[in-house]
Design a protein that fits this description.
The chain is built from 17 helices and 15 strands. By secondary structure, the protein is of the alpha/beta class. It folds into 2 domains: about 270 residues, Glycerate kinase, MOFRL-like N-terminal domain (Rossmann fold); about 160 residues, MOFRL domain (glycerate kinase, domain 1). Strands 6-5-4-7-8-9 form a 6-stranded parallel beta sheet. Strands 10-11-15-12-13-14 form a 6-stranded mixed beta sheet, with helices on both faces. Helix 1 packs antiparallel against helix 12, helix 13 crosses helix 14 and helix 14 runs antiparallel to helix 16.
Length: about 450
């Protein structure tokens, strides 16, 4: 492996390590037995009788591990109970020894980013704990990317199967995360502020690891503790009709005929906030890590290794994986020796019909597309890495992939195979066959995708 390739992989890993859930919690949360300090906010919790710690997401285990480490650092330990939903195989080793009174539910298979019956059962337990909270309790909600699929309570008139079918249609047809979450908020009892509306705790504290570009709180995990903007059934119906016209007529009709309109829900949320304030209740949300933090850490590592780099963390959608791959190929050609480009984002993939669909993920697709663009004019001494910071990329075991001069040199004869794989979204088959996929396992974080391009000296 060339030095520039080793460097690019090291830079990518440094970005991921900087946003590990347990690490960012320990860095930004302090507890002295009375005052909980998060970032620059100090909360007096000396009189709290119980902490209810609940959460959902790919980083929920790491976040819980960090919280318990912070609480164990003092002699005054609060009485705790709780429940978290996370993917199978993502419980940190350290957490298995100190979960205390908190139930940890491996609620869905690894690599399957959809709610299951076990997710619904776990969400029911979370809501049961929330419903029992009193003004003397603290609810600490740990939310991270993947929370939408790991916190699921469909509206009463919708089955889990219908909810999953809707999500599949939107995802496979290129719906942006903002559109997907707008629909999720409208068909859920817990998203779109649903958890906050049920809580009567004296303090509701939400810690967030953001997997949505720009960190809009209502979109991260579909905003379980964010009352505004209220779920909008009419908007959700329009999005469904745009991507799945006439495929869910009963759902569209129900969404447009709901008794509570979006303005009425907004007013109800404002009334609840005013009532909570009058009763001395508080609600706080803190974003502990995001894509920009990972990009910044990767930049620092690249500079430490001697590269001059530019960077960008996208704050909104960036188009398709095909487009991003083309852009990265152009950047490879333009970079001078000893320079680099580091970026973060989350492109979409429009999937072909299931009859011809292969196996892949958006990061592997980005890398393979970039490689196909570079086959006609192979640059010397470069490396390109793209990976999901959560360690997952599509329904594969890989986090992403990487290519360099050597891969291009060996792949010239396989150009037709590569182009066909791109058409079928079969990037994993090609890249795993050559040993160019990123295999990280669970990373205990999730802040979208991180991409590194370096040119050797």
């Amino acid at each position: 492996m060339e030095q520039v390739t080793q460097d690019a992989l090291r830079v990518w890993q440094a970005g991921v390590d900087a946003v590990r859930a347990d690490r960012v919690v320990r860095e930004q949360v302090r507890w002295d037995g009375r005052i909980l300090e998060i970032q620059q906010t100090r909360l007096d919790l000396a009189h709290a009788k119980r902490w209810i710690i609940v959460g959902a997401g790919k980083a929920a285990g790491g976040m819980l591990e960090g919280v318990l480490q912070v609480l164990e650092g003092t002699e005054e330990h609060p009485r705790i109970c709780g429940w978290i939903n996370l993917p199978e195989g993502s419980i940190p080793e350290g957490l298995k020894r100190r979960a205390g009174g908190i139930e940890i539910c491996e609620a869905r298979p690894a690599g399957v980013n959809e709610p299951t019956a076990k997710v619904v059962d776990g969400t029911r337990e979370i809501l049961r704990l929330i419903d029992k909270a009193t003004a003397e309790d603290v609810v600490l909600f740990l939310l991270s990317g993947g929370g939408s699929a790991l916190l699921c309570a469909p509206v009463e008139w919708m089955s889990l199967e219908t909810k999953v079918a809707i999500t599949r249609r939107l995802s496979s047809r290129g719906a942006r995360i903002q559109e997907l979450n707008a629909v999720r908020r409208a068909i859920s009892q817990v998203k779109g502020g649903g958890l906050a509306r049920r809580s009567r705790a004296g303090h509701l504290i939400t810690l967030v690891i953001s997997d949505v570009l720009g960190d809009p709180l209502e979109m991260i995990g579909s905003g379980p503790t964010v009352l505004e903007p209220a779920p909008d059934g009419a908007l959700a119906a329009r999005i469904l009709q745009r991507y799945a016209p006439d495929e869910f007529p009963e759902v569209v009709a129900r969404l447009t005929q709901e008794e509570l309109t979006q303005p009425e829900l907004t007013q109800a949320g404002k009334r609840q906030e005013a009532q909570d304030q009058a009763q001395g209740k508080s609600a706080h949300t803190f974003v502990l890590a995001n894509n920009a933090r990972a990009v910044e850490a990767a930049v620092r590592e690249a500079q430490r290794l001697g590269y001059r780099v530019q960077s960008e963390s996208r704050v909104e959608g960036e188009g398709t994986a095909e487009q991003v791959g083309q852009e990265l190929a152009a950047i490879v050609k333009e970079l001078e020796p000893g320079t680099g480009w580091i970026s973060g984002g989350e492109p979409t993939v429009v999937l072909p019909d299931v009859a011809v669909r292969g196996v892949g993920g958006r990061n592997q697709h980005v890398v393979l597309k970039a490689g196909s663009e570079l086959l006609g004019d192979i640059p010397t001494s470069f490396a390109l890495v793209s990976g999901g910071t959560d360690g997952e990329d599509g329904a594969t075991q890989a986090a992403g992939a990487w290519i360099d001069h050597g891969w291009l040199d060996r792949s010239v004869a396989n150009r037709d195979e590569i182009l066909e794989a791109l058409e079928r979204c079969d990037s994993n088959t090609v890249l795993s066959a050559t040993g160019h996929v990123l295999l990280t396992g669970p990373t205990h974080t999730n802040v979208c995708d991180l991409r590194v391009v370096l040119r050797g000296s």
